[in-house]
Amino acid sequence: MSVTNLIYWFQILITVATPINVSYNQPRFSSCAIWDVNASTIITSTPIGSSPYGLFINTNNTIYITSRKKNNAQIWTEGAISSTNISSFSLNASAGIFVTNTKDIYIDNGLYNNVVVMWPYNQMTSRIVMNVSGRCHSLFVDINNTLYCSMGDLHQVMKKSLNTSVDILPTVIAGSGVSGSAANLLANPYGIFVDTNFDLYVADSSNNRIQVFHRDQPNGTTIIGIGSSNSFALNDPSDVTLDADGYLFIVDKGKNRIIGSGPYGYRCIAGCSEISNSTPDTLSGPFIIAFDSHGNLFVLDTNNARVQKFTLKNNSVACTDPTTIQTSITLEDSTTSVQLTTTYVESAEFVTTVIETSTTSLFNDQSTTVVTMLTTNTESSSSSELLSTTANMTVETQSVYFVPQKCVDSNYMGLSCNQTSNSCDMLLPCQNAGTCYFNVNASDQYFCLCNNGFNGTHCQYDTRPCSPNKCWNNGFCTATSSISFSCLCSSAWQGVYCQTKVNYCGNVTCYNNAVCRSLLSDYKCECLTSSFSGRFCEHKTNSLVTKEIITKTLTYVAVIAVATVALFVIVLDVLKYVFHIDPVYQERKRLSSHRKQCASVQPKPRVVLRPVYVN
């Protein structure tokens, strides 16, 4: 086993052994839990402005909202009538917002500034944590401290680890930057959610589906919507979240409703009339949902510019034991009656009825399967009341052995002959919006017609001069030919790929031994002492000027004195050796005579003689 695998399994063991604390709420709901049909407005349009995009509720039930029109983020504590605002001149039309356990706030600022910023808890300034190429409609930080950004306008989801101090570029985890409906593509992804298994759930809005991308997998799996085995249809879903049991709750924005799942499948839980309105029981363009710790559902009703709260009516009610009723139905060409099993699942709030599949023996080796699903969800004060009921029945005849059904059209297959048998539709092999063509004479053969800039058997290679992320650091790529490109870099970067930070100190001279520091898009001369000031440290203080004048004056006096003495000596030498004039001859003679007199006056030293006898 490799070191990487050992580390991976060690992380799993740590995850299993250690309780996982997340900053958001994931309540556990009863299978029969329902929410109040009429919502109460918690926050109106006055404080948050029109078309709000971002909503987050932490485990303390504090609500965080981004206001696009007011260019701020607002913090509403539970029960508060006013908010605390996070305002900055740099915030502009923010969308996504996420808050961690440490109460650090991550805010999208990508539409005009191409960054995601983080406001540390109890601090007044923010810092950039991710560079992006557009708006982050939704942000998420997983349990491994990795930041995710869903870029709906660019059809991809990016991620970046926050565990390193090194400024690394974000990587693409889902989508390729091209709008498409293939398993590896997205079309306007909005809401995202990452569970503790690092599975990424994406509200793939324009594809009308919810995709899940398992860890390190480029291809997604459709859970609900177009392309899934579930018949529940979505229309422009904008957000997805999970409860404690892993059941999905979805914002079906196109139908102005909220969808929930459970052990009995999917159901509508809010805005079920699908009417766009501002009444308490309707929504208009809902965008994001969140739960509080009590299981109440909060909806950011974007077109109405309000936050709606749907109260959990009763989460303690457990469904009663199923009640089974036997009914009979007679099929044509059969001599035997078929017993259908009808199951009533009841609670004090609603009644659910399910008719299961029943099988009976018919003639010869044939058997007939009657598949009937009858479901009723009726809000009632009495468990015996049963209102609107919808039933769908199909009757199929099949052998006790598996015999594939022969479809009239050989291009289709399946029990209902509704699935094409060609390899293009089954495999979806062409990537990057390539067009698949299959061989009519051999359905297992196909070829991909790639768009300009892509090649390979499955159009998997991107050869466009301006492929995604070609220019770094928010540079803008322009294709100059079919094989060459040019990057227009932002003011702080340069190089072929905008990979080198501009050295603004290259042509700048700072005076008085000042040090030049290169900033993000500017430079600064740092003066060594307080005696200098100015853009280039070229200005001196008055005290320094005074000291310089005194120093220069003393210097000039000393120079003049030395020059005078030297000139005097030179003049004397010229007079003596050139003109044979010795102005100081008499003085020297007098001094010499005086020295001789002094020498003659001095007494001679005494001489002591000591005889030495030599044998």
From TrEMBL:
Disulfide bonds join 450-459, 489-498. One of its GO terms (molecular function) is calcium ion binding. SUPFAM superfamilies: EGF/Laminin (SSF57196), NHL repeat (SSF101898). InterPro entries: 6-blade_b-propeller_TolB-like, EGF, EGF-like_Ca-bd_dom, NHL_repeat, NOTCH_homolog. Residues 1-17 form the signal peptide. The chain crosses the membrane at residues 554-579. Residues 420-460, 462-499, 501-538 form the EGF-like domain. NHL repeats lie at residues 177-216. Keywords: Disulfide bond, EGF-like domain, Membrane, Repeat, Signal, Transmembrane, Transmembrane helix. It comes from Adineta ricciae (Rotifer). This is EGF-like domain-containing protein. CDD domains: EGF_CA, NHL. PROSITE patterns: EGF_1 (PS00022), EGF_2 (PS01186), EGF_3 (PS50026), NHL (PS51125).
